[in-house]
Batch of 2 targets.
Target 1
Amino acid sequence: MKSIIHVIVGAVVLAGIFSPKVAQAEPPALHPNAAVPGATLSISGKGFGPFKSTRYNQVMFGGAPALIQRWEPDLIEVRVPSQATNGPVDVMIGKKRLKAGGFTRLQPTIVSLSPAEAEPGALLEITGEHFGNTAGPRDPNTIFGVNSVVVGDVTVRVRKWRNDKIEVELPANVQTGEVVVRMASSDPLADGSCCAPVRHVVSNAMPVKVLASVRVDPVSGPVGTKVVLFGKGFGAARNPEDGVTFGGRPATVSQWSDTAIVVHVPLDAQSGPVVMKRNGRERTVGTYTVQVPRATGLTPSQAPIGTLLKITGENFGFYSEAGSTPYNYLDFSLSENTVEIGGVPSIVYRWGNDRIDVWVPYSAKSGPVVVKRAANTPKPDGTCCSGFGKFLKTAEPSKVITDSVYARMAPELGENVSRTEVLFNGVGAIVQSWTDTEIKVKIPHRHSYGVGKLGEFNPDLTSGPLVVRRGSWDLLPDGSCCTPKKWLTLEAGTFTIQPTGLPDASYWRNPNPENSDFH
């Protein structure tokens, strides 16, 4: 009998033969999967390999080749071609084709414009969708092109660009037309290299009306100031409902033509927008600042009548502008702007925006010196006037200086100018100095020689009254200049001029003085 000896030397577990697990290639992914032509897309994945050539490495949008900007083994960046359509995007690596997913082509669309009417220099806001996040490279000469906005036939400057909103500035040469947004894109050449000429995908068009620009001059001043609106297309004549407002307050319309409107800042004007009303429509054409006249100095603070009083300050304006007249010489013949001394109107000698000189009138009283600026409130139809208010503004001198500020001659003071005099028995002396407490004069010789006229002669005026007097005048009731001269007179007493230093009386009786001892 045979014996079998089993020797166990170990244990073996037969589990079979296993192959290692092979990782599946990550399918390409397109980011984003919807965009406008010209946008840059990325394709992420694995196994793209190195870039060899534009023929070997390609990306196709529904059969349209895209311009490749970056190719790495795990990332590809391309620009959406102008001919892209909705459909699949394929990555071509030699003869190998990888599906990157579906693509949707977006179309830039304008929904609204604000404002629908604007003038050159204004900002135009374009609201819509699919504009992209930026306008593209800053350099307009880049081979990839730049997204742009066109108004009429003018490419305008972009201030802000967002996917749903664009803000542009209307240039001076822009005209009424249609607004379009253009998305730039560059496609590759037939061999896949860069680049074919830039092409644009254009949005829908939306009309905008470009208004003629309007210049407001001046843009600041006190009430009553004449303001001119320069432009075109205002209309040859003004309709009853047409007008101009300052801070919501209607102004007096002095002149209305197709290229210029002349108005005066009303008495109740407020700083704020200048609004032109035409054919039932309103348009803001500028901003106006209403200045308040302010006096800062008065020289002298006390003086007799006839003194030239100097008032310094700011925002007094122009003397000729009283609130209603257009371009004509009537602006300068009379003004409602005045200065009152103790409640009495004074005679204006010179009026500037920061200085006023006036003569103290004969009827002046001690009291406040008040500068009054004239303005008005128009009737409901915009014509002058519902009544004058007074406040202040001027630059042309009064008629005391000259009868016409346009006269081609140097201004001359008329005979009615203020005067101070010292009279010896009716004959004026030469004043050498004059202060509030002391006057120095040179005693005249003529009194000793006698004075007179044809048929009337007084041989001796050496003794008589010594008179100091000061003259001035008042405005007439209609505000024009002026009443006859009126005088304040002070008689110091009788003064006798001593006839010393004169030739001996026999000098006058000698018919041949050349033979006399005095020769």
Target 2
Amino acid sequence: MTLWPRRHVDRSEITPLWRVRVGDVISVQGIVETVTDGGFGPRNYLKIRVGDSTGHLDVTFFHATWLKRQLTTGTQVLLSGRIDQFRGHLTMVHPDYEVLEAGQEPRLGLLPVYPLAGDLRQRFMQDLESRVVPRWSPQMDDPLPDYVRLAKRLPDRPWAILHQHWPIDAQEREVSRRRLVYDEFLRMSLAVLWLHQAEPGVSAPQLDSHNRLVSDFMARLPFVLTSGQKAAWSEIQHDLKETRPMARLLQGDVGSGKTIVAALSLLAAVGTGYQACLMAPTELLAEQHYLWFQEYFQHLGVPVIYVSGRAKSQDPLSSGMPLLAVGTQALLASKVAFSRLGLVVVDEQHRFGVRQRGLLGEKGLFPHMLVMTATPIPRTLALTVYGDLAITQIEGVPPGRQPIKTVHLSMKDRREAYVKVLEAVRQGRQAYVICPLVEESEESQGKAAVLLADGMRKISGWRVGLVHGRLAQEEKSQVMSLFRQGEIDVLVGTTILEVGVDVPNATVMVIEGADRFGLAQLHQLRGRVGRGVHPSTCYLLGDPVTEEAQSRIQAMVESENGLELAERDLEIRGPGEVLGMRQHGVAGFQLANPLKDLELLTEARETARQLLSGDRNLADPNHQGLRQWVVEALKEALPGHVLH
């Protein structure tokens, strides 16, 4: 994987400090005169004062106290960024910086800025890349056939690589970027469209979506399907009656009613005499599904079994008995042998890789597959990443769902949120409290949850339960059962409560350290309330210091629409981060942005369609570079038969 510059900085001129003005985007040079370490915690910062013979400038780095090892008093430093004003002083916040050794002259011109880690310095990276890239790039193969490159008026790839690192001017940088972005889109489009091609001779079971089980289930529902659910079910029904295996992504906002649509699909399989399975990413979510389907399918006489990693035998599966199997990745184990699998439903698709989806699909004779997510993905991004799937979006939410009021409170005002929790409990309602995301590990977040719960238990007036990932599954199940039954008033937990918990009586959600969570995660957590007839409130506690964190909190307060928030998330963080876990074997984007580069995405996708329509296996001698490109992207992702 290439290390691309994250941007370029124009250091054609160095401005003396006496000439700087608020709003300027410039480069300055000076000596570090003072260093102030802001300590640890959510507001940690490093502040330095830089001076030259003409003036002074304050510079602040948030969440970067490690820089004090480099930016010591007396150090010569070159800074590039925007001049702002704070409390009457000129300042730069998070500028690009370069530490100059004694006697070292600054490098001038349009310079690449590389991501750094640890004690790596920008000058070192620039010197390294200035030696490596010009020597290495001319040796790179260009997988794009000449006839495509010339038709699209694109430069060759070696030239583009060199000039993405070291352009002479902004125009050269943009021309090189256009070629490299096109490459990323074309490779991804070829990969996902290749997967979407039906293999010759593949035949899926034709499922009757009007069978007795489906009819009985619909007749017993205490509500009418929304127009969005009906439209989604209609699209799925059309697929299930075909002999080509369905491959469909079902998107729907929190509370849109995806589970009902999934239930109808599963009953279409079981009612036609086939087995069906549903895979969830966590045992907590799988167990919630198992309990729900047991309750709703019991009167239909449909066997529902739970498949866990601890199960030793699954005789009903190998016998071919029509049933529903619910489980986690344990369903992928070789010992779990279906003999008549007609439909696979994968919940929370964004948490699974393409490889896992493919392995589960191999469990039957090319079963139909429905994958679901409550984390809406902007359509441009979904078409690129999930291009092997047809996309269905459930619009709207069931009637009676209450809007959720979202309130942001600073940490000094957090008591207000807990007063509201206590008021809700006194009114017979329940609440969630999500502990802060101290680090990206379940262990540290679990410890934070324990401390939070212990502190709350010292206050009378509520019964506090605790659930986190390091508890044994039996303990988690017991706590969740007590909460559903109303024996626990306030459930303290980690982000394992993000999905799959449906307690209509819960009306308050408190998220500690909300500025540390991603936008999609905040929206999912908020979706645990507002599921009943009572008004609900979500309190976001935190003191966001970065512009990105402030934007996330503001977006949450302003909108409840998951798709709108997904678009905002894409704008704030970019496509690589929004995707979260990268799909196994299909790399994320390094330079491309589906929002900014939508025209190139459309062009590349159309080129991919044309290439595969005339050469489905990319066997043409002119396409060998493309074929190798795609195979490398997918070789870790899918069962061998998919790669032809």
